[in-house]
Specification:
Two copies of one chain form a homodimer. By secondary structure, chain A is α/β, with parallel strands linked by helices. The first copy, chain A, has two domains: 153 residues, Medium-chain alcohol dehydrogenases, catalytic domain (Quinone Oxidoreductase, Chain A, domain 1); 149 residues, Rossmann fold (3-Layer(aba) Sandwich). Helices cover 24% and strands 26% of the residues of chain A. In chain A, strands 3, 4, 5, 6, 7, 14 and 15 form a seven-stranded mixed beta sheet that branches. Chain A has a six-stranded parallel beta sheet with strand order 10-9-8-11-12-13, sandwiched between helices. Chain A has a two-stranded antiparallel sheet with strand order 1-2. In chain A, strand 14, helix 9 and strand 15 form a beta-alpha-beta unit. In chain A, helix 2 crosses helix 3. Chains A and B meet through helix 7 and strand 13 of A and helix 7 and strand 13 of B. Strand 13 of chain A pairs antiparallel with strand 13 of chain B.
């Protein structure tokens, strides 16, 4: 193998608010040959996720922070180009935590083989990856929707929200999305099959909910927090379940805002429960099998927003998430795949 | 029966912030003889509860608001002094929603006979009344503490909190109270048997929790909301359950504050669930039986703060709750009992 250069983004500083260019260090190093028990992966696609913002902060969370100077953590899919690991052969495709870089030297832990003949590689970062698993377990295990109930999903045009709504429809629910802008709302209804979608940029969410969910909200899958969570709290049905999956509106806030209307939980005997997808790792296969079936049957649609920018485009592409500029799962194309 | 005068407090205006004297109308009317199917109760003790503040507000809640001009809603115990109801005889003692008044004419619905030989009448407004039922079902059904786990209770010297902590101790938990002032904290530890009590007036609750609950909080029974809820959120153990029973710090706030640290629910896979005691009405007898046994065995202590002021003292006595001046269940003595 020729000597190759690995371009990477490392964390240079902990951001205050939105990540700035100075929070990143664009580094390069020579790719090392795998030692015994290692393999080398050429990164094809990287997953860009709202959760990345949290990983950049110091302090206790559900996963350790990325250290200053460390390659930024990122999920990805790629191709094995060298291997001295008995479980992986050159030409295999794998998904796992590959990092924001062009090549990943790995001992194989946490890598899963994927089959590009069954689904395009970006789908393994979307419906068949973390966003899909998050949607599946968050909705079904925590939200526990019943046929005929009303399910509301924020970030409805995003990687997780679009899958939550589609699964809720498959389970016989009435599904309302919340998204930003007319184009996204149209997509949510026309492509993802939601019953309605509220445009939080042009509509009063609380009033709109009164119209489209007159009997109240049984399950709210929250990806955004902030004012939208507060608006939905005013419209809960008795016994409602709120799934706290994320709070993208708050991740860059220096003074996060709590849901002022949380006492609606008492009035409506409702619950608000946090979920972290990693807790379901031993059931990913079960979810992937069911969702692969839905994909194959045309009952579930996976939508990726692929930016063909190479690893150097990472900092700017990440910001699209926080500006609400992506539609579907945001993926950065790094190599040919 | 001689002609008697019934003194009452009726709601004159909906309060903004703390209830003012002008929010009340002190009225009197002549007591009417019971018609067929009715009974007349002489009110002995009235229960003064934080929830009363919510009943004075307009708008949808778990119970309809008290209307302007209506006798203020209040639970109470009293003695039947006239009856044309087959289920109640003169001399019976009853508990139920009697209202802030000296005499209550009733059709018997919602009244329960109580036995003053088994427990003093105020106990039927305390451990054997709504506060006790709230503590019992909120802790055991929603909090689901396990032996060895850490349970934290705010309003620990109050009617509900003091019972929550004692039940948690009976279930083998480590129990930490939060209360205001040294005297209350001493009571919580020495009389109610909690393992520790944090004085939120003189201590930093977050730091104090780090010391007394180093492994985190498994169950938090919240009566207060506000900054204390936010502090406890930073110390949750994995899988913690927060019972939202009340938010006395917020009831008089014109701009209620939400828990800014609610994303700790996600990090810790925790839940926050609202409870309303009325949902457990069909199981009150079961709880009362178990708690009567604990009372009789000296395993549970009921503490009432009885103000012997007559019905006219109602407005001032109610304010004691919001100033944190009561210790144990606040009860207003109206007649001899």
């Amino acid at each position: 193998m020729d000597s190759r250069t690995n371009h990477q983004y490392r964390l240079a500083a902990r951001p205050v608010g939105l990540p700035q260019p100075t929070d990143w260090q664009y580094a390069e190093e020579t790719v090392t040959e795998p030692a015994d028990g290692q393999l080398l992966v050429e990164v094809a696609y990287l997953s860009l996720d709202p959760a990345m913002r949290g990983w950049m902060n110091e302090g206790k969370s559900y996963i350790r922070p990325v250290e200053i100077g460390e390659v930024m953590r990122a999920g990805g899919v790629g191709r094995v180009i060298a291997s001295r690991h008995p479980g992986f052969a050159v030409g295999d495709h794998v998904s796992g935590t590959l990092g924001v870089q062009e090549y990943c030297l790995s001992d194989g832990r946490g890598l899963t083989k994927v089959d590009p003949a069954l689904a395009p590689l970006p789908v393994y970062l979307s419906v068949l990856g973390m966003p899909g698993m998050t949607a599946y377990f968050g909705l079904l295990d925590i939200g526990r929707p019943e046929a005929g109930q009303t399910v509301v999903v924020s970030g409805a045009a995003g990687a997780v929200g679009s899958v939550v709504g589609q699964i809720a429809k498959l389970k016989g629910c009435r599904v309302i999305g919340i998204a930003g802008g007319e184009a996204k709302c149209r997509l949510v209804v026309e492509e993802f099959g939601f019953d309605a979608c509220i445009d939080y940029k042009s509509q009063d969410v609380r009033k709109a909910l009164r119209e489209v969910a007159p009997d109240g909200v049984d399950v709210y899958f929250d990806n955004v927090g902030g004012d939208i969570l507060d608006a939905v709290l005013t419209r809960l049905a008795r016994g409602a379940r709120i799934v706290i999956c994320g709070a993208i509106s708050q991740y860059n806030a220096t003074e996060p805002k709590g849901p002022a209307n949380y006492m609606s939980l008492l009035v409506n005997r409702a619950s608000m429960t946090g979920m972290v997808v990693f807790d379901y790792a031993d059931r990913y296969a079960e979810a992937a099998a069911e969702m692969s079936g839905w994909l194959a049957a045309g009952k579930l649609r996976s939508l990726e927003d692929v930016v063909d920018g190479g690893v150097e485009a990472f900092p700017d592409t990440l910001l699209k998430l926080f500006k609400g500029e992506n539609t579907g799962k945001l993926v950065l194309k790094v190599a040919g795949g």
